User: What shape does this take?
Amino acid sequence: AQSVTQLDSQVPVFEEAPVELRCNYSSSVSVYLFWYVQYPNQGLQLLLKYLSGSTLVESINGFEAEFNKSQTSFHLRKPSVHISDTAEYFCAVTPSNDYKLSFGAGTTVTVRA
Amino acid sequence: GAVVSQHPSRVICKSGTSVKIECRSLDFQATTMFWYRQFPKKSLMLMATSNEGSKATYEQGVEKDKFLINHASLTLSTLTVTSAHPEDSSFYICSARDYRGDPTNTEAFFGQGTRLTVV
Assistant: This one.
């Protein structure tokens, strides 16, 4: 079985400041890793994913995450946030030979001017 | 990316009635769809995996007779909450995998969610 721990439940941040959302996972098998974003009363949208290859993955809107196998982490970062980045962020993992996503508890990011 | 449409987005029903939620993959065939429940300030809890043409696989603790899932076609899965009670009030989200014939395609696309309120 897999589990995901998001270490921060709420992260307040000022506009244009950097942000890091921490995610650790545990699994006895190899996994794929994902970050999803959820805006109020909406479904989830994929932000970025790690399947294989380069451990640093980037999204089109400036987020990046780095897979660290030794630390079993997949932290999400953005060097400069916007008000529109205010949302709930979920880290998720699935075994590479399966398709069931296991989600972390989520991190609420609130960006203030 | 592929589009998953969920309907309705909001529904209010009386206690004891049944409510059906639809999940459609609009531009791809989804052999597998997933139903999640999300409590306020909580993560998503997988309820069941819906496979086209076969019975759904329910997660431990989810009542099969309470949450009926039907996946009659490659583009439609439905979740029916039967004899709804106020404790069933929640945000329900579906997702679908777009295999496109490639079993290593791991991306799941999510519907917009359905806010169910049982009064």
Observations:
- The mean pLDDT of chain B is 89.
- DSSP finds no helices and eleven strands in chain B.
- The first strand of chain B starts at residue 4 and ends at 7.
